[in-house]
Write the structure tokens for this entry.
Amino acid sequence: MILLAATIALTAILVAISVADFRRLIIPNELNLALAGTGLAFQMTTQAGQFLIQILFAVATLAAVWLIRGGHFAMTGRIGLGLGDVKMLGAAACWISPLLLPVMLFIASASALLFIGGQVVAVGPAAARARVPFGPFIGAGLGCTWVLEQFAGWNMGLL
């Protein structure tokens, strides 16, 4: 019952984030807080003994992505990853095993690249320079990783 409720909550939050980010290129803080809060509530309910590890993983993920964002800006003078995306990746880390972070990032990045490729084919080369919301693709990566971990047994034996 808890797994079903968590899956429904995760799906609703990811849909809300995707809609908001596609419409305004902004992920509201309230949605990122809801994502983190429900993920931590699920972890506390199901994996209370590993709760501190999950929090440390989320904080480390947030810090690493924030540093990558800053490094990209320092090298290019452009913001390549919005703060909402950084916060969303930290919040997403509340939901999954630390060993599945690369899977989530791969799915998010690959789906974003496929989307941009489709836009270039449909609209033309100028589409490659357009701003693209990354939140929906992070959501796709998190959703797929959640399904793999919870329903296909890819918990990697860590958490």
In short: Helices lie at 2-24, 29-46, 51-76, 83-92, 101-123, 135-151. Residues 2-151 form one domain. Residues 51-76 form the longest helix (26 residues).
